[in-house]
Amino acid sequence: MLLPEYDAKIDSLIFKAGELLRFDALNQESFDCLVSELQNTLEADLVCLGLCHPSVPQYICCRNFPEFEILMGQLIAENAVCRLTDSLTESLWGDDLETFMNQTLLPKIQGGIALTIDWNAQPIGILLCGRKNTAWSPQEHRLLKHICCTISLAVDNYMALETFQSQNRELLSLSQQHLSKAQAEAENANQSKQEFLSRMSHEFRTPVNAIIGMAGIAADSESPEKVKECLKQINHSSRHLLELINGVLDMSQIAANQLTLDIRPFDFDAMLAEISLRYTPEALKKGHTLTFQLDPKTPRYFRGDDYRLAQVIGNLLSNAIKFTPTGGTVQVNVREITRDNIRSTIAIAVSDNGIGIAQDQHPTLFTYFEQGEGGSSRHFEGVGLGLTLCKSIVKMMEGDITVVSKEGMGSVFTFVVNMDLWLNRPEDGPPVLCDNVSRGTPEASCPPLPVNPRGYSAVPPPVACAAPTLEQLADLSSYVDMEKGLSRILGNKAIYITLLKSFANSPQIPQLYRELSEEENEAAIQTVHTIKGMTGNLSLPAAYNAAVLLEAQLKNNRPAHNSLDAFRQVMEKTLLYISALLEKLKNEV
After folding, report:
1. Is the predicted pLDDT of residue 200 greater than 70, yes or no?
2. What interhelical angle do 138-220 and 224-255 show, nearest 10?
3. CA-based angle 33:34:39, to the nearest 5?
4. 423-458 burial by CB neighbour count: b if 16+ within 10 A, else e?
5. Which residues contact 100 (CB under 8 A, 6 or more apart)?
6. Is a pLDDT exceeding 70 seen at residue 259?
7. In this predicted structure, what is the pLDDT of residue 92?
8. Considering only CA atoms, which of 222, 347, 344, 354 is closest in space to residue 287?
9. Which of 17, 48, 385, 491 shows the smallest number of beta carbons within 10 Å?
10. Residues forming a β-bridge with 346
11. Does the CA dihedral 35-41-47-52 come out positive or negative?
12. What is the per-residue pLDDT across 529-583, written as a single tens digit (0 to 9) for each?
């Protein structure tokens, strides 16, 4: 039986072990102190303690048994080699560690007792004690097991702290990256703002100087013709100055969320005619051909903000005229995408065959204070607010704007807007008389699909408005497997036709291109998955395969440029064939 004062020593040892093995003080020094306390309290001839698993801190401490340190060091080295070669096996742990302990260590000492230290259900170290003259009591056995459990708990807490600190370091690193990115963006924005202010000061001074100069010349001139010419120049400069001021005021309203739409009934054709009257003289001065073409199915009467809509078209037209060399072609194409009982979605494309836009400038075209063409654009008027203003207004109209352009090959700016139909309108008025504004003639061309963002391909060529017949599209017959599609719905042709119409007017396709242009990858994956399901149910094999390929590319985070171009081309052909098919079937049900 142990004496009471010995019990007190053991209690003191347990307390000291808990103090020495705090998770925040687990180190070689604490192990050295623990081994000394064990040797003194238990009056042991030798005490050895070692953690040797590669997943935890590795410490070795020994009193009066140097060979222990050598053997444990070899064990650590062997495991380090196994870890480096990625071939760590159970042969170094588990039962073999106890075999190593019992067959290699214990025979070398007298009165030896050895215990494994376990963590996460596997041995990570050894506690070895030896005493020649006195046997180990059950209480001392329990004490040593308690010490092993204390060490295991300390390791567990230490590893939890290391994991927490590692996560904190990762979060801190991520926060620093975000901070650096935000700082870089702020610096870029500030630089763009400074460049904008520099351009704006130049642009404001130019018309003001022209007004002052022309006014002085007119005042000193006695020639009526000279005075008239000066007044024309003053009028031109004044209008340009007013446009600059209005642009800055509009952008300030947008920045303060104060810009609103004035919804009212308007005649779409009349609005285009007014735009034509304003910009045709400017186009003719540069020898351009300017035409406005409306698809015959596009409604004429809407409820919306025709001033802001005309402002967007005017800004795009102004850029097209400005950046197209003498003798170029500028077109405005309009067509309806979808319509329900009260609303219509229309696409408006402004195209030119001008200087085009370099690919690396596309991401910043719609950014505040940015101006395409950089330094070379100093040959042209403008302060870099037009496209930003266009995007803001289009978004207010529940739409989006995209660009397809290639340097030296021209540009196509396409925007989609949603507007209410003017239901209680008066009888249709007479056609708007304007030479270059017309609705669907056989010679005219329709606008390109508003669905090719980020310049994945060159500017698409015009497509003839005259709808091809099913016979003319015989080579596309494989794009719609009507027989298989009907079999999926028990041969109900009326339902199949309804589903085809629904797919042809589906918003998912333009939505997909918008999501890709804004790099919303997860949303794009969901949308293309929906399109894949629709094309599969309707038995549209080419479109289905293209959707499968595009979805796989997006899920693997691979560049989808080629897949998107293939998808777009297949989808255009599929929709073209569906249109012809629906035209043929419209009288059958």
Report:
1. no
2. 160
3. 100
4. eeeeeeeeebebebbbbeeeebbbbbbbbbbbbbee
5. 75
6. yes
7. 41
8. 354
9. 491
10. 336, 417
11. negative
12. 888 888 888 889 888 888 888 888 888 776 555 667 778 888 888 888 888 888 8
Question: What's the full length of the chain, in residues?
Answer: 589
Q: Do strands 343-352 and 329-339 pair parallel, antiparallel, or not at all (unpaired)? A: antiparallel
Contact yes or no for 412/460 (Cβ under 8 A): yes
Report CA 425 to chain centroid distance, whole Å.
43
In the three-class reduction of DSSP (H, G, I as helix; E, B as strand; rest coil), residue 521 is classed as helix
Q: Rg for the chain (alpha carbons), in Å?
A: 40
> Tokens 């480096």 sit at which residue?
84
User: Measured between alpha carbons, how far is 419 from 266 in angstroms, rounded to an integer?
Assistant: 11
Q: Could you read off the pLDDT of 382-408 as tens digits, one per residue? A: 444 678 888 888 988 888 888 888 888
Percent helix, percent strand, percent coil in the chain, to nearest 5: 60, 15, 30
Alpha carbons within 13 angstroms on the beta-carbon side of residue 203 total 24
pLDDT band at 254 (very low <50, low <70, confident <90, very high): low
Report pTM: 0.43
In 3D space, the residue among 551, 546, 537, 539 whose CA is nearest the CA of residue 570 turns out to be 546
The C-alpha atoms of residue 72 and residue 125 are separated, in whole angstroms, by 9
C-alpha distance across the termini of the chain, in Å = 104
C-alpha span between 560 and 456 (Å, rounded)? 9
Q: Which of 74, 192, 64 is nearest to 128 (CA)?
A: 64
Please tell me whether residue 419 adopts helix, strand or coil conformation.
strand
* Coil, strand or helix at 451: coil
Q: How confident is the model at residue 88 (pLDDT cuts 50, 70, 90)?
A: very low
d(CA 417, CA 397): 6
User: Residues 196, 197, 202, 206: is their CA dihedral positive or negative?
Assistant: positive
* Residue 381 CB contacts under 8 Å (≥ 6 apart), including other chains: 203, 206, 240, 322
- pLDDT at residue 174, rounded to an integer: 87
**Helix (H) or strand (E) segment spanning residue 347:** strand 343-352
Confidence of residue 463 (pLDDT cuts 50, 70, 90): very low
Torsion angles phi and psi, residue 263, rounded to 5: -80, 125
